[in-house]
Amino acid sequence: MTIPSLTMHAMPSRWFLTRISLFWLGLSFMWGTLNIQVLPAVVPDLVGSEIQGTAIGAIVFLGLVVAVVVQPVVGAMSDRARFQMGRRRPFMAVGVLLCIPFLIVIGISPMYWVLLLAVVGLQIGANTAHGPYQGVIPDLVPHKARGRASGFFGLANLVGTLLGAAVASVFLASGHVLPAILTVVAVLLATSLASWVFVAEPIPSDSKPFPGIGTEVRRRLGELGERPAFVWLMLSRLLFFMGLQAMDNFLQLFMDKGLHETDPELKTTGVLGAVLVMAVLASIPAGWAADRFGRLRLVAMATFLGVVAAVLMVFAQSFVQTMAFASVLGIGLGLFTAADWAAAIDLIPDLRAAGLYMGLTNVATAGGDALATLSAGIVLDVFNQLGPGLGYRATFVMMGVYFLLSFSVLLVVRSRVSRQECMMRIPQSRVSSED
Questions:
Q1: Is the pLDDT assigned to residue 360 strictly greater than 60?
Q2: What DSSP letter does each residue of 257-298 carry, written as one string?
Q3: All structural domains of the chain with their residue ranges
Q4: Most distant pair of Cα atoms in the chain: their distance
Q5: Which is deepest, 98, 104, 262, 306, by most CB within 10 Å?
Q6: CA pair distance 398, 375, nearest whole angstrom
């Protein structure tokens, strides 16, 4: 069964939006398993507790630097691909197949450097798939429905992350790393197959010869210079994800070493479950609201809730308090996942290069993850040397600062959008109203 391609005037059904989101579910399941559960559980055993934060930060940072490069490059390649089965799906399939051997190596890594190299390889494979995949919404969904589509993508991301962390916690609680990884392989293959079968791509008819790397780079830099709102939005996105990841990737260690809770893997899943349940509940209505009332307002509300959550987390003294305070961030995350993605699509300078420009959004997403994990890991180790558990409080302070900076940059985005509308006369279909 295949799905006929949508015209840019058709309104997609909920079932269609669910189907085009399945691939993201698999990718999120994988990263939820690795970043939230596997790395915090495995790395301390390989390097010792004294440098565990820095070691986790380094492995995530190096892997995501690779992602920042690979995703927009492969996304740009998919923009000009002319395969009979579609321009995005072949790259997605190749990327998934590349992921599998590196996942197996992660599950059996005996040394830190082997684990690090396997994560780098996994990033190459995952982002070979991810970059082209991000062009699906601009390709198949009309402007007036992109908020709803982004809400579904965000929902798949949140559910996948939660399921990955939850399933992995069951295996890791009994010390079984490889079974958790094999579960990831099975889910990734299943969602990839479903995406291939249930989502058909139209064959592009606007084939143009590639002008050369130099010409292409100059053209795209010129477009970004003329419409800088996209760049400012990416900076705001980077800071938002820095705030989010300052908590996520060290939450298990906080449960274990900071609060001295029993079963830290399961309680980490409980906290993230609260975050993601609240995000899921908020994401679908937020997607509708983004289409009706404007994207940037919802993103601003999300950053404000992030600041509130960070302040509360500084004073958390128990698992229950942590779960309650983190739930505030969950609401903000739901608003953000629905609205920010749609805002980015609205502001890309050239919809024909959606794979490239939406791949560049990963400079913010992965870059934020990389910078936050590295900086928070260093802060964690330094402040824990000054006082037991102090490093975890310091990371929550960093989290609040990043969210506050993200909100500040949004003010620049709004002013740039208004200026672009006046100076460039961008049609209403290109930029959502923020009146």
A1: yes
A2: IIS--SSHHHHHHHHHHHHHHHHHHHHHHHHHHHHHH-HHHH
A3: 14-200+220-424
A4: 63
A5: 306
A6: 9
